[in-house]
Design a protein that fits this description.
single chain, mainly alpha, Arc Repressor Mutant, subunit A, 2 domains, 3-stranded antiparallel beta sheet, 8 helices, 61% helix, 6% strand
């Protein structure tokens, strides 16, 4: 699964209708070069591929040679939500996929975000318990003592994942962050973002 695909769908959806340069500028303003493996060229490639797959509509601008505007189709909207929920629910994804999910989480209604995070927490707690069992079994098997650090490291990471997810879940459940549907122009609503007015010289 591609974080680029999710991010590009989310940004185009946020603007309602926009072009590649605006998508790139918006994502760079979020600092994606620090937390996601998204290169400028991959953004333009994703736009073309999403349009080819029918998930976006591409429109050439007659008075603006070379410019193509994109908007998300109903199929693209469904794919956006599928990717977004999956990014939040499944801990096995790479960090950039979770980061993309967090960046776009307000596009979900609050109850859907809570459900996704609760699912993530259940999976992480099961993994945490399994790791503790593996650690106990490894010690009983008489392996070299220093190898226990492998399980200690993995268990600490699991503990951190459970703690962070539980904290975020409770804060979202309690009303932190403005989620889709709570206000007409909320961050997560389609077309709610406003880009600067542009001219062909832009």
């Amino acid at each position: 699964m591609s974080a680029t695909r999710l991010l590009v769908l989310g940004v185009v959806r946020g603007f309602g209708r926009t072009h590649g340069y605006r998508v790139r500028a918006e994502l760079l303003s979020w600092g994606i070069d620090d937390w996601a493996n998204v290169k400028p060229g991959s953004i333009y490639h994703a736009l073309r591929q999403l349009a080819k797959a029918g998930l976006m509509e591409a429109s050439e601008i007659a008075h603006w040679p070379g410019r193509v505007d994109y908007s998300v189709t109903p199929e693209g909207d469904a794919e956006f939500f599928r990717l977004l929920v999956d990014a939040l629910e499944r801990p096995e994804h790479r960090a950039d996929m979770l980061s993309a999910g967090l960046a776009l989480m307000p596009a979900l209604p609050r109850d859907r975000a809570v459900a996704a995070l609760a699912t993530r927490l259940d999976i992480l707690e099961a993994q945490q318990a399994a790791l503790r069992g593996e650690s106990t079994a490894a010690r009983a098997d008489g392996l070299p003592p220093h190898l226990s650090e492998l399980w200690t490291m993995r268990t600490r990471y699991a503990d951190l994942g459970v703690e962070w997810t539980h904290d975020l879940l409770e804060r979202v459940r309690a009303g932190e962050y403005e989620m889709a549907g709570e206000h007409g122009d909320a961050f997560g609503m389609p077309g709610a973002w406003h880009a600067p007015v542009e001219s062909p010289a832009y």
